[in-house]
Every structure is written in C-alpha cells, then in structure tokens.
Amino acid sequence: MTFSQATRQASLTKLANTTQDLLIIGGGITGAGVAIQAAASGITTALIEMQDFAEGTSSRSTKLVHGGIRYLKTFDVGVVSDTVKERAVVQGIAPHIPRPFPMLMPIYAEPQATFDLFSVKIAMNLYDQLAGVEATQYANYTINAKEVLQREPGLRADNLQGGGVYLDYVNNDARLVIENIKEAAELGATIASHVKALSILHDDRGQAIGVHAKDELTETEFDIHAKLVINTTGPWVDQLRASDDRLKATPLLRPTKGVHLVIDASKLSVPQPTYFDSGLHDGRMIFVVPREGKTYFGTTDTDYTGDYAHPTVTQADVDYLLKVLNYRYPTADVTLADIEASWVGLRPLIASNGSSDYNGGGANTGKVSEASFTDLIKTVDAYEDNQATRADVEAAISKLQTARAEETLAPSQVSRGSQLDVEDDGLLTLAGGKITDYRKMAAGAMAVIRAALEAQGVTVKDVDSKKLQVSGGHFDPTNVDETLAFYTRIAQDAGVPEEDAKDLANRFGSNTGRVVTYAEGGAAPGLSLKETISLRYSVAEEMTLTPVDYLLRRTNAMLFHAHDLPALRQPVLTEMARLLGWDTATQGEMAAQLDATIAETQLATLKEAHHD
C-alpha cells in the first residue's frame, strides 16, 4: 500500500466530497489509536493532522513505556496495575517497538526520598505481581551500594544505600504513532497530514457535523462532513474547543513542558535505564537512559503558556538538568557544550488533576467524567475479556453521558490523566493521557462512538483492540528476537550489511520485506543502501514529506546520530527532491527548514550566547 504525497491529494478530494462516519482531529498517539480501532470496526473513518504525525507531542516523550512504579509510594495500586497490564498489551500489538530493558533505581538516604530500601522492595514485589513477571527473568531484585557502584561507577557514593532493579520498557514514540496510522490507512481510513481544522461545522439543530479545514500545503480551504467528530488534538484540545462557536468551553488542560538532553556515551555511560530522585528535594525524579551509543536524560516538569507549536529549551531547563546530572554523577562534568541534541514537548495534563505521570501528582479533584471514563474503560476491558455484556457497556456509556452532575470523588486510576467528554453539540473530546494508555483510551472512546453511530443506523463491528496489531507488528510477540533475526536476514539477502540490516528489522518489523523492494536501482548518491531504502520506503509508504519528518520522526537520526547529519543532509535532500519532484525553490525551503531544526535540537542559540 502506498501512503504518500501521491495518495494525499486523492485523500483530500475524498474528504471534501464524502460524508465520513467518524472524523478524528489530531494525528498524535491518541488520534492514531482511535483511527486504527475505528477503521477495524468497519466504519468510514477520516483523520486529519495539522502538522506531521506525532509532531506536536507524541514524538517528544521520555521514550519509555513506563510502568509507574512511583505510584506505589502512595499505594495507588490501581494505577500501576492498569499501567503494567496495558504495557504488556502494547508490546503485543506493536512487538517490534517497545523492548524490555530493566530499570535501576539507586536509593539514597536523603530528605524527601521517594523510596528507602525497605519500601522499594515492597513496591517492586507488588509491581512484579501486578505485571505478572514473578519468577521470570524479569523479576525484581535489590543490590547493595557496592554492587550499584560496580554497575555505575560514576554515581555519587555519599548516602547511597543500594538499589532496586525492575522491569521497564524502552519505546520509540514516533514510530508507534506512524505504525498505528499506517495500519488504519491499510484498513481503509482516509488520512492526511498538514490539514488544519479551522472551525466546527453544525447542522440546523446545532450538532457538530464536521469541520472547515485548510490544506496547509496549498492554503486551500474546504469542508469535511462527518456523522461524529472527535477532538484528539493533545495540547491543542482547548484551542479547538474554543473555535467551536456553539460551546461555552472552559479550559480542560494545564500543559507542562518536559525537556530531554542527549550526550555521547563516552561522556557518561550507563548500562541500563536509571531513575532517581533529583537530589534537590523538589519531589522530581530524573531518568538517565542509554540509547544507540548515546545517553539521554530528563525530564523537567514546568507549567507552560507559550507557543504550543514551538516549545523551546531554555537556559533554565539546561541548568536544572545539568545540576541534577552532575550532582548524581560528580565526575561527569557535563556542560552545555557536551549536549549533542535535545527535544522538548508538552504534556497535555488535565487541569483538575494537576499531576504528571512522571512526578507523582496532586489531589484528584474528582472531575466527574474522569470517574465515569475509568468505569467505562474497565467495563470495555471486561467486555473484551468476555467478563461483561454489551448491556454493561451501554450502561457505562449512559452513565458517562449523564454523569456531569455527580460530585463524588473518583479513585485515582491509570486514566487519571485522561478524560472523555461529550460536548453539548455532540463533539467528542478525548484529552490528557500518556502513551502507555493510548490503546485503552481509544477503546473507551470507541464504546461511545459505537453507541452514537448505531443510534444513526451505522453498523459497527466488534473488534478486540488488544489483538489489533499495528503495521510492522504482524508477528508473534512471544517470539520477537527470532522474528527480527529473520527480517535481518531478509535485509542482508538484499545486500544490506548485517548491522544495518538489524537496524532496518528493528525499525520496520514485518514491513522489512517491503522495505527491501526499494533496493532496486541500488543506493542513492551519498547514502548507504540501508539509508536509501529506508528513505524511499518512508516517502512512498509513511507519508514522509520533508527531511525533518524523516530525520527526526521516521528515524531518530537527529536525536541520536547528530554526528552523521552533516554527511546525511545533502544526500537526503537530493533523493527526496528526486522522489517528490521538488523545484529549486522548494529544495531551498526544505534545506532551510532542516538546518533550522538541526540548529534548534543542538541548542545552537544557547551555545552561541554562552560562547559570547
């Protein structure tokens, strides 16, 4: 299947001329999760994204499918139980993306420490029980201070008590989004990036029936009609609601900003993801994660009110993270000059919740729709497991839609950070959440979508979303290593060297066979065969429209291979110009956009100011 600039125009024509059953606004992980489930359910599904897929937030996470062990500090067992179970589901539906990588948590005797050695062992045992990994190779264990320092000699020894080791997963956030998007398109969804929703359309009764949209590439405006519209725009949720002139919308979100910095492993090497209190007694915990010969660390967590489309790393962000890192690793002496790349993203936190999944959180104010959404998701889960009936699901939906007057407090659950609302004009708003929850959030939304569409006479098929594998993930999740070794051999047979072939298999999973078909004609000038076929496939089948799409989100080259960028830059521009038919002016614009993004990820402005 092609999914490219060439198919995009046909998709736009279809959007302008047919009424969809469901229109999804927003192509991050939440919208992508709804799209794949909706398309699999047999309803006509459309999705528009105003930027590239995952560009806004879903390519800017900590790149872990994090189990939330911190919640066990306050015995929020429900949060951790649902999170670790959902993490296993995500690994099953996208087996080539999340990978198990045990986390080390050094324990220090310090004021306001999150855990001591006694409490961390209790927490980890409960965590393993909830995750179902007791008596497996991933079961937790504790190590003494000497063993912690043998693993990570650079860690501060003062007040170090020991450490806990427990199962966690590394993730490729942007790849998870594009694989969901591609599968949704394969299942029949009509999907286009760089299409912005300008306002909500209404019928004579004031019900939402679509959007007035703009093709950001041509500036053309047009209407898209749908029986149901869902807002999955992440940090932009409130902005879209504000553009709906039938709503008196009070803001839902309190966005916070998270920053991550990348250095070479030669500057600081860690053998496994490491997670510790900041040491500044501010209630924050920091991740330090090895990846592709680099080490990245974060995250900050600060309120954000600036330009949502363009959050930036400030000197204060860098100062904070370097202070924490150099405190915990006293001999590392990491400076601004050592930072090779960075990324910054917004977390679309629900204002009434006021907590981050990284940093514990404040009190849950019991916003009604959160409680009923949690109940709905549990009921949908039970239905998927044949433990609940269709009537149970319908009752939960009814409760969701009438629960606005409730004043009872909601228990803290994994969906504490997400919320589903049916607005007064019928617009659905699915807000908040985190990557680990995306499949579950979408399943909860689909229950409401099903009821609304069936009321309009639309037939909606039953789908078990826990078994709905994404593009590239169509293989046995219990046999990942052997399967990826098989796809590595397929790439090798096409002439790709072994290490490069392994990279391709890990990136593209069961699509690797498709990727190697692009080897015909050999390597592009200045590019390896691996890079050539990866780029050609991404342009033809992953709606890759710019060099930034490719080098930042389809691959992680800009984040974890900064030293390769000078050699990649012109050959990628040249090959994309050939594939996409760019004229000289467009090539110049693309080069300028790429250079500006590279400079931004490498903190060029901060480094220049520091140098002056």
UniProtKB/TrEMBL annotation:
EC number of the protein: 1.1.3.21
Keywords assigned: FAD, Flavoprotein, Glycerol metabolism, Oxidoreductase
GO molecular function, one term: glycerol-3-phosphate dehydrogenase (quinone) activity
Gene3D superfamilies attached to this UniProt entry: Alpha-glycerophosphate oxidase, cap domain, D-Amino Acid Oxidase, subunit A, domain 2, FAD/NAD(P)-binding domain
Domain Alpha-glycerophosphate oxidase C-terminal: residue ranges: 465-586
One of the protein's GO biological processes: glycerol-3-phosphate catabolic process
PROSITE patterns: FAD_G3PDH_1
Listed SUPFAM superfamilies: FAD/NAD(P)-binding domain
InterPro entries: DAO_C, DAO_C_sf, FAD-dep_OxRdtase, FAD/NAD-bd_sf, G3P_DH_FAD-dep
Superkingdom of origin organism: Bacteria
Similarity remark: Belongs to the FAD-dependent glycerol-3-phosphate dehydrogenase family.
Name the UniProt record assigns to this protein: Alpha-glycerophosphate oxidase
Organism: Lacticaseibacillus nasuensis JCM 17158
